[in-house]
Amino acid sequence: LFKRNDVRITQAFKPTHLGLDMSRGVVRQPLYIPTLLGNGVVYKRYDAYSHKGKRYNNALILWIKHDNGMGSRYIHGYPQDCKVKTGDRVLVGQHVCNTGNTGNSTGDHLHFEVLSKFDDLSTRIDPEPFLFNETDVQSDTSEHVKAIMPILENIATELKKIGEILRQIRT
Q: Which residues pair with 20 in a beta bridge?
């Protein structure tokens, strides 16, 4: 996600905050498609949005549909710093946007979300396991990352099933 390892988590994932806030303390830092989420397509790109009745203009929300069926969202960047548009193919390690201080924000950061089902906000899961890019992982730990990939894929599959069950219960 970041190509540097000096990133701080400034707000953790929890029931009242369904994403992860991260900052390097330096403005407009480049953001890259995380290795553990894989390639995908830009599903939606919003250059403005409303939240709790307030309209935020010039505020980016970038929404990626990954090939594995999962989704990721990158929030608070500046639209002019976004490198992709809806429908673009994106690859692991590709620079897609930058951190920012737009919308419902009090400082330059990334609000990062991972969805077990790309188009369903009710399937947001803790993004922390998906943060590392291969270049961020030391060579002696890269085998550990490869070893947990099947586990992460199984978790994503099970979360999708749970989401389907919950949708059926709601209807």
A: 112
pLDDT in tens, 79-125: 999 999 999 999 998 999 999 999 999 999 999 999 999 999 999 99
C-alpha span between 166 and 133 (Å, rounded): 32
- Using DSSP, state whether 43 is helix, strand or coil: strand
Distances (CA, A) of 90 to 9, 66, 95: 25, 9, 9
Q: Model's pTM, two decimal places?
A: 0.77
Q: What SS3 class is residue 51?
A: strand
- For 95, counting Cβ atoms within 10 Å of its Cβ (0-12 exposed, 13-18 middle, 19+ buried), the class is middle
Give 131's strand partners: none
Reported as type and span, the H/E element at residue 102 is none
Distances (CA, A) of 39 to 32, 89, 101: 11, 8, 26
pLDDT at 160 (0 to 100): 86
